[in-house]
């Protein structure tokens, strides 16, 4: 068959067919974005995600340089490698953005999340919740006759696992900070 007579249903691979070269694998990436600490910057960054239909799985922001008026936004997002690259390029082009680092590809990094988990339970379920908390190294930060509030720090997966074990013991109420992350080493 000549290249000009491509039959319907054939599987010819052309250099012009970009879909055959693109990955459909969805990956989760942690991005650290250093920005000017000024009104509206966070809204602009979030607007970039919502305007293009990108999902934010976790978002934290705090000032990291008071004298230089800089904040660090840590974003956990997911998408194909092409979508992740698009996000990084678009963030890097924004005027108040000083630096975009993809911690996931730049090397090892440490990430943690803080959660407060209230477990409303009675009887043996209260005892069991304390036993599980000890295994997970969660601290009791408040206690009443009907409930405990636990503080746990760790990876999002650790927080999820702790919550899943607590749910059968009673009503669970949850507050999470989102992921904070930083590169390891120098």
Automatic annotation (TrEMBL):
One of its GO terms (biological process) is L-valine biosynthetic process. Keywords: Amino-acid biosynthesis, Branched-chain amino acid biosynthesis, Transferase. The keyword Transport does not apply. This is Acetolactate synthase small subunit. The gene is ilvN. The keyword Transferase applies. Its EC number is 2.2.1.6. InterPro entries: Acetalactate_synth_ssu (IPR004789), Acetolactate_synth/TF_NikR_C (IPR027271), Acetolactate_synth_ssu_C (IPR019455), ACT-like_dom_sf (IPR045865), ACT_dom (IPR002912), AHAS_ACT (IPR039557), AHAS_small-like_ACT (IPR054480). It comes from the Bacteria. Residues 30-105 form the ACT domain. Pathway: Amino-acid biosynthesis; L-valine biosynthesis; L-valine from pyruvate: step 1/4; Amino-acid biosynthesis; L-isoleucine biosynthesis; L-isoleucine from 2-oxobutanoate: step 1/4. CDD domains: ACT_AHAS. NCBIfam families: acolac_sm, PRK11895.1. One of its GO terms (molecular function) is acetolactate synthase activity. Catalyzes the conversion of 2 pyruvate molecules into acetolactate in the first common step of the biosynthetic pathway of the branched-amino acids such as leucine, isoleucine, and valine. Dimer of large and small chains. Belongs to the acetolactate synthase small subunit family. It catalyses: 2 pyruvate + H(+) = (2S)-2-acetolactate + CO2. It comes from Roseicyclus persicicus.
